[in-house]
Structure formats: structure tokens, C-alpha cells
Amino acid sequence: MTRAPLKTVCIVGGGTAGWIAAALIAHLHPDLSVELVESDDIGTIGVGESTIPPFIQLLHLLGVNESEFIAECQASYKLGIEFRDWHHVGERYFHPFGAIGTPMTHADFYQLWLRAVADGYTGALMDFAPAAVMAREGRFTPAFMALRTPIGGAAYALHVDAKRVARFLRHYAEERGVVRTEGIVTDVALRPDGFVDRIVLSDGRQVAAEFFIDCSGFRAILAGKALGGAFDDWGEWLLCDRAIAVQTENVGPPSPYTLAEAQPAGWRWRIPLQHRTGNGHVFSSRHMSDDEATAILLDKVEGELVTQPMPVAFRTGVRFRPWDRNVLAVGLAAGFIEPLESTAIHLIYRGIEYFLRFLPTTACERELADEYNRRMVTDYTEIRDFIVLHYCLTQRDDTPFWRAYRDMTPPEGLARRIALFRAAGLIPEGVDELFRAVSWQSVMEGMGVRPARHHASADRMAIDDLPRELDIARSTLSRYVATVPSHGDFIARHVAAAPPR
User: Fold this and answer.
1) Binding-site residues, please?
2) Which of 7, 88, 199, 382 has the highest Cβ tally under 10 A?
3) Where are the domains of the chain?
4) Is 78 a known active-site residue?
5) Which of 49-63, 231-245, 383-397, 455-469 has the lowest mean pLDDT?
6) Three-state DSSP state, 77
7) Of 78, 163, 225, 300, which one is the catalytic site residue?
8) What is the pLDDT of residues 361-398, one digit of tens each?
9) Using only C-alpha atoms, what is the Rg of the chain?
10) Which fold is adopted by the domain 8-75+160-234+315-382?
């Protein structure tokens, strides 16, 4: 097979996935000719409105002005996620972005805190997380504006309007030469070797390319229907398979965090933007009907409805080979993990970033695809295990849904992580993992898992009065956060969007 440099790429499907792919390729490989095929007649899900800190890295990689992007997409800031009623009804905990604690020694801060707790210290772990303290007080300043301060270790992400993000990135990509073709794909023509040769549109037009990126969502027109790519179903561990989404008017200023509140057969989200709030109810259809889920959601939301409730069916899992021959599946076409930790957009970015690292020739070398697939499936699996962690540690027994999770046997890799953490508070971090020790520590603690002991390294640290040092650090952080502007004031001063039309 001829091994010539790739020259033409066709992206099938728009939305957030398609236009992130188009923007990244156009920016990083302007030598490639990119055509994106989508149809205004096929709606996008458009409810993925919460991001994680790597999304800020994506904006910087693209050279996008962050403030302009925030204003254009009516975005607000996100310091983490507040979880309510997951361990027991009436309990809540916070998963912060960024650091917990300030460096006192070379020991991990969590281990020092465990050492102090073993001696009777009562200060809460989240009192040392700058993102958590700012979120609790409804305040915000980005860490890059306060690097040498007590909040310098905080990280942040964004709450965004997904459709405005796609529109912003479409304009970005088209300015850099990406060609958009309006049309509905009705057929896919394969070459004798099983590679995709061209796609056929409903009006008879054909689009040929050397490489195709499938961003057609759950339909997976290329990766699924044309190539028959096998799918690893994770419904055994992720029981939720449906969602109801609705938008409401804001009631008060937006909070700088996402709310994830457990419900009888799932959980609901609240994502506040500048001019409206995104709401949703993720649930298991085996334990609840659409009508029941919708009624629960509408009873919980605040503010007048901006849209009518929209049901979304989904299947959790990942394709065994997201890159198969000359087709790369990205976004929902590659796989899906329920949106509890807002990882969908990150996996799109990650998928294209990895692909460009392994950019093939026209031969689409199998070795490159194999390594890509290994890395991406590993990423999906890591995130799956982190999501299951939120469920499998529950002590709730008030509904069949929560009893099923309480009694569930977690995936083998997750079971090992939990056991290691229970033993000495350790986290087996792998190479380039998304969720680092702080994230695992926050959720483990929030779900009631306290290690049997602290690690011996914490005992070797010469700190004469550890509780006193911790109290100083806690009060210093609290006093500084009190000087930070409110989240609403910061938005109004720096990144306010134009009034909605």
C-alpha cells in the first residue's frame, strides 16, 4: 500500500465534537485539507455544558482569547462539583479542581492531614482546598491572577452553552480553511480493502477523502454502521441510560460550581451560565420511567422554563477500536460515560490530540492505530472507574437503584484502587491520567472511606506542632478568600456576555 502523506480529511458530523476536531486540525496541521459534513436538519444533543480544567488548555492551545470566548459562549466559571446525598441522604461533599493544602514538607498534604486527624485534629480536608473554599463562599478569581497567594493552587473550568461553543469553533475553523458541506449522509462506499472511500449524501453528492473522522454521535455512521466496529458495553457498572434535560432562567447570580444531587434512581445536575441555567436528570430506565424522571426534575428546578424537557437515551461503553482502518471515531461515536464528572468534551479533545500525535500516512499504519486505541481505551476505562467510584461506595439502601450499587462488585482495577486507599491512603497514579490523587482523595473521603492509617512518610516530617500549622494555613486561606470578588462580580467586571436577544 502506498505510504504518502495525508492530504484530505473528511469529518462527518458537526456539533461540539466535529468542530473541536476541525479547529484543532486546522490550527495544528494547516497543510491538511479538511471538509466537515453536517446537516441543520439533524439536531445535536447539545447538553454537555460543563467542562474540566483541560478545556482551558484547549483554548490556549488554539490561541483563543479566553475572556472573549467566555463572553461569547455566555460561560461562567467552575471550581468543582458539589455532591449531595450520594453517601447518605443529607450528606454532601465537594470535588475541587486544583490542589488541596499548601506545601509544608515533601510529604503529600493528605498524608499530613491524616496524621493530624489520627491525633484528634478536627479541621475538614476541604478547608484547605482553595477551589472548595471559594466555591463555598460563592467567590472567584482565577489562579493566574493570584499565583503567589493562598488560592494559587486552585484550578478552574467553565460552564458553557454547548451550541454556542460549536458556533464559535465553526467560525474559528472556517477562518482557517475548513470547508463546511450541508448534507445528510445516506450511504458509505468502501474500498476493496475495507477502508472508506467516500460518503454519499441524500441529494446524490459524494465526498471522498483519504481519512475520515466520525463525529456523527450515537449513530456512528462510519465506525459503527459502515465498519461494524465492536462496542464494549459498560451497563453492568453504569446503570443510568437516560437523561431529561431542560433549561431555566437564572435565579440569583450563578454559583461557581456544578451541582450533582442524587435522586431515587440516578442524579440531577444544575449548571449555571450567565443568562440561564442548564438542568438535567440522569437515571436508570430499569428503575424509573421518563414521566417519573421528568416530574422529579421539574419539581427540583428553580426559575421559569426556557425550553421544554428533552429526553436523551444513551449507552455507556467504548469501541474496542476507536481508530479502525481510515476512520477515527470521536465523541459519542467512540464511546460515552455518563456526564457525572463532565468528561465528554475532554475525551473529544484528547482523542484528536492523540490522533495528531500518531498522524498516519495514507496507509493508516496498524501499529499507530493499535497504540492510539490502547491509550484511548485506557483513558475511557480510567474515567469509567472514577465514575463508578461515586456510586459503589454508597451506603444508601432506600431504593432498588441504590441497593444495586451498594451491593455491586466494582471493576477489578477500581477494587484494587479502593483497597490500596483503605490500607494507607495511597493512589496508584498511572501515566498521564486525567484524575490525579486530589480527585480520588476528595471522592473517597466524601463517600466515607477513611484509610486505616497514614503513610509512614508523614511521620518522618519534623513538624513540631502540626495542628497549629494546619490551623494557620486554614485561617490564612479563609481570610484571603474573603477578599476575593464574588463570582457574579468577577464575571460582570471581566467577561460579561451581551444581553440575550
Assistant:
1) 14-17, 78, 185, 332, 341, 345
2) 199
3) 8-75+160-234+315-382, 98-154+411-487, 242-313
4) yes
5) 455-469
6) strand
7) 78
8) 999 999 999 999 999 999 999 999 999 999 999 999 99
9) 23
10) FAD/NAD(P)-binding domain (3.50.50)
